[in-house]
């Protein structure tokens, strides 16, 4: 069956029927707007990300369910990077008329599976036809107490630069997909990233992260955003960058190039006071998430890269920019 057989309202009905109730949602899908009840004494954090066929994903590379999960994950990751607990989201979709309902059902199964896992509720959206492939636009809402929100601008000189998990995997996975590989650890890191929600919220709740961002454009580009907004520079020890064994095998010649510029790992990059190092290590160990200190915040601007033998290192590729 194709979407043109189901119709716009048939599709919306099909989606609405799968959504569970939540106490924070006074009015969900079905009216002109949703009505939400925020938790007392919290700010609402709101973020939006689009995913376009041919730009962000390729339906020849990914199954619909993984794409659904990733569409929500990248938005939840932005909330995690602010230390916010995700609560609700809106889903905008533009679909070709001949899009199969089977693909659509797979996509929605992925979106709603991830929503369930992270306790977020679909409260509305928009649906229209597309003349150029699938377009997904998700807007996610989260909550945090005002004094606990973690911004990009909070880093100070002398702090440690830290990262969760491993970096470079998703970029290597994309390279493998282009070469025809369709499975394995690196490919799954590209197609189905894990947003670090619990860690982001815990770092914020405990007042441990001074500045935070999720690694969507690459370590150098994303740390660059923290540095710029905080008015500081950073020195990165390349020998401390966390790489997976699979990634090391893939990038045997030079692990740094892709590790520094490859995006889409959706790990958290954050700064902490040196005295909090053990507390943060313990906290992340409690979540079973790898923790690495990869550098320090310094005076000035820009990011200095130091190889394990102390030599300076130049990045060739800067990270992803849609218009470059
Ligand atoms: P309007 O014409 O007033 O914008 P719509 O027909 O677009 O209303 O939407 C009807 C209801 O269905 C609204 O509550 C809207 O939020 C919801 N909705 C539309 N598309 C989606 C979608 N893709 N996912 C979830 N809810 C949706
Ligand atoms: Mg509408």
UniProtKB/TrEMBL annotation:
Which keywords fit this entry according to its UniProt record?
ATP-binding, Kinase, Magnesium, Metal-binding, Nucleotide-binding, Thiamine biosynthesis, Transferase
Specify the superkingdom: Bacteria
Question: Where does the chain bind Mg(2+) 3?
Answer: 32, 78, 214
Q: EC number(s) per UniProt? A: 2.7.4.16
- What are the binding positions for Mg(2+) 2 in this chain? 49, 78
Q: In what pathway does it function?
A: Cofactor biosynthesis; thiamine diphosphate biosynthesis; thiamine diphosphate from thiamine phosphate: step 1/1
Q: Which InterPro entries match?
A: PurM-like_C_dom, PurM-like_C_sf, PurM-like_N, PurM-like_N_sf, ThiL-like
Where does this protein hold Mg(2+) 5? 217
Name the protein family: Belongs to the thiamine-monophosphate kinase family.
Q: What is this protein called?
A: Thiamine-monophosphate kinase
Question: What is the source species?
Answer: Geomonas silvestris
């Amino acid at each position: 069956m194709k979407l043109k057989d189901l119709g716009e309202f048939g599709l919306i009905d099909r989606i609405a029927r799968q959504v569970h109730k939540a106490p924070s949602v006074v009015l969900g899908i079905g009216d002109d707007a949703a009505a939400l009840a925020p938790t007392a004494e919290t700010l609402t954090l709101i973020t939006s990300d689009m995913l376009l066929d041919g730009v962000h994903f390729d339906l020849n590379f990914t199954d619909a369910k993984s794409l659904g999960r990733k569409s929500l994950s990248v938005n939840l990751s932005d909330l995690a990077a602010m230390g916010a607990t995700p609560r609700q989201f809106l889903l905008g979709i533009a679909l070709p008329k001949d899009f199969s309902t089977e693909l659509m059902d797979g996509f929605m199964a992925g979106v709603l599976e991830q929503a369930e896992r992270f306790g977020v509720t679909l409260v509305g959206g928009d649906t229209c036809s597309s003349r150029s492939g699938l377009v997904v636009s998700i807007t996610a809402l989260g909550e945090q107490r005002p004094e606990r929100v973690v911004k990009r601008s909070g880093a100070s000189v002398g702090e440690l630069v830290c990262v969760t998990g491993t970096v470079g995997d998703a970029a290597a996975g994309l390279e493998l997909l282009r070469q025809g590989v369709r499975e394995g650890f690196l490919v799954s890191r590209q197609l189905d990233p894990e947003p670090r929600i619990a860690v982001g919220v815990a770092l914020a709740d405990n007042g441990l992260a001074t500045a935070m961002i999720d690694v969507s454009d690459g370590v150098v580009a994303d740390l660059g955003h923290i540095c710029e907004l905080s008015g500081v520079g950073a020195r990165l020890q390349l020998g401390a960058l966390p790489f997976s064994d699979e990634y090391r095998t893939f990038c045997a010649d030079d692990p740094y190039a892709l590790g520094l510029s490859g995006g889409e790992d959706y790990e958290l990059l954050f700064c902490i006071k040196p005295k909090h190092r053990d507390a943060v290590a313990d906290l992340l160990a409690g979540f079973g998430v790898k923790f690495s200190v990869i550098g320090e915040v310094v005076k000035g601007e820009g990011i200095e890269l130091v190889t394990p033998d102390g030599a300076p290192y130049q990045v060739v590729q800067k990270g992803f920019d849609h218009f470059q």
